[in-house]
Write a structure and sequence with these properties.
Elements (H helix, E strand, L loop, with lengths): L9 H9 L1 H6 L13 E4 L10 E9 L2 E6 L3 E6 L3 E2 L1
C-alpha cells in the first residue's frame, strides 16, 4: 500500500480548529494584564443562563479575581477562566 501525500490537508486544519479551546485555556496573559472595573470574556459559563462576560471587581489573590456576572451574581474566577 502506498501513502498518497498529495491529498489536501483540510482534515488537519479542522483538527487544529477543534483544539482552539485548548489554546485559550493556556493563555499567556499575565495577572497584571487585568484591571478592576473592566469587562472580560468568560471562557466557560458558570451556568447556562448567565452572560458570557464578567465585570472584575477586585483581586482575591495574584491569580484570582472577584467578579460580577450578569444573571449569575458574584463569583471568584481564576485568570485562566477569562480573557480580554
Amino acid at each position: 500500500m502506498k501513502l498518497d501525500s498529495s491529498t489536501s490537508d483540510c482534515a488537519i486544519e479542522g483538527f487544529w480548529h477543534n483544539l482552539d479551546w485548548l489554546r485559550k485555556s493556556f493563555s499567556t496573559e499575565s495577572p497584571d494584564d487585568f484591571q478592576a472595573y473592566s469587562w472580560v470574556k468568560l471562557l466557560e459559563l458558570p451556568n447556562p443562563y448567565s452572560f458570557d462576560e464578567a465585570l472584575l471587581l477586585c483581586h482575591v489573590s495574584r491569580q484570582e479575581w472577584l467578579a460580577w456576572i450578569p444573571d449569575h451574581g458574584e463569583a471568584q474566577l481564576h485568570i485562566s477562566q477569562f480573557s480580554h
